[in-house]
Amino acid sequence: MSDSPVTFKILKRQPGTLARAGVIHTPHGDIETPAFVVVGTKGTVKSLKTEDLRDYVGSQVVLANTYHLFLQPGDEVVKDAGGLHEFSNWNLPTITDSGGFQVFSLGAAFGKGVTKFASSEVKEVSDKAGLNVYSKKLAENHGKLCVIDEEGVTFTSHLDGSMHRFTAERSIDIQHNIGADIIIAFDECTSPTADKQYQKEAMDRTHRWAKRSIMAHKQNYQALKKQGLYGVVQGGRHLDLRAESAKVLSGMDFDGYGIGGSFSKNDLGEAVKVVNQILPEDKPRHLLGIGEPEDIVEGVSLGCDTFDCVAPTRIARTGTIYEMTNEGHRRINLLNTKFQRDFSKPDESCDCYVCTNYTKAYLAHLFRAGEMLGPHLASLHNLYYIVNFTRKLREDILLS
């Protein structure tokens, strides 16, 4: 978009790969890429203050969720507070997603063990393994909690069972009210188990919604001056659909692109490679919802610039932390008995606040005792680990 508030500059390309180091300029500061985007779903990174993100994690950018903020406290409340930055005291660049993945969670994936990564088999699971629905009776009465049509999505709130509707225009309007620097066009995220015919239908619908999202954004002149808009590439595991989606969206007036949908672990690399060989070089690319260390390495080498994932804080809240070993990254569960008397640093290679001041034994004690400080410290460490791991990949590109 001409005179966009969000622009991208490539500083260095890594020879022999699609990797590049760059800078995304936003109204609330620059994002040096490649970068990991910390997820603060409801306008908060669970248990962490803005000062923690800035001073202890080194976070450059935070992502909030359109669906959740719409339901609670309401996008109008956020707008009246002065927007997301004022409301949450997030004095750094921000992103909101479109709500499309929540459509997936409430629809095709509801009641099944389906995530963005496909497994060989999908099994019915209990409420505890999926979305926290309002009640079991509600789930039984509604089956899927959302219905998708050409115009948009009608869905049932997981909080209280109330019914709502998102269209492309409504999603953009809500994101205008929330006020993030980067907003995302409304899309349909399909299940990795969906057949190719449905993947094609959903992709084409996403493209139509993308056009409508652009028009809705351009009709709000004030938002157009303050917020950049990303389109989302879909197509599931099918490389021909991914290529088609990338070509179609490349012809639209977006400030950047998200690579969305669901993959199998084996398909991730090829799909991202095909897409990034087509998307415009001068626009940033965000790999949506993917953020394990090995996936970030692959994504960077294939030309992705930013990543987001809830995993670092989600696993931290149950006592699992990242650790670097001679064999590479691993997760360790602090509730294992052997850590009760392990007085070593949580990660010997890490110089974060947590690893400088605490031991595995102390963290293990906090989790066993049910103390709130446990999830706080584990979240600090995991976010520092993944944010700075991604920053190191950037430094490697600049030195290549």
What does this structure look like?
The chain is α/β, with parallel strands linked by helices. The protein has two domains: 7-309, Queuine tRNA-ribosyltransferase-like (TIM Barrel, Alpha-Beta Barrel), CATH 3.20.20; 323-388, no CATH class. It is built from 16 helices and 16 strands. Strand 7 and strand 8 (152-156) form a beta hairpin. Residues 109-115 and 117-135 have low confidence and may be disordered.
Instruction: Give the fraction of residues assigned to helices.
Output: 25-40%
Output the structural class.
Answer: alpha/beta
The overall number of domains is: 2
CATH-assigned fold name of the largest domain: TIM Barrel
Number of strands: 16
Whole-number mean pLDDT = 90
Q: Can you tell me the residue ranges where pLDDT is under 50 for at least 5 consecutive residues?
A: 109-115, 117-135
Estimated share of beta-strand residues: 15-25%
> How does CATH name the architecture of the largest domain?
Alpha-Beta Barrel
Radius of gyration: 21 Å
Tell me the strand order in the biggest sheet.
6-5-4-14-13-12-11-10
Shape: globular
End-to-end span in angstroms? 32 Å
Q: What's the helix count?
A: 16
Write down the CATH class of the largest domain: Alpha Beta
Main sheet: strands, sense, barrel: 8 strands, parallel
CATH superfamily name of the largest domain?
Queuine tRNA-ribosyltransferase-like
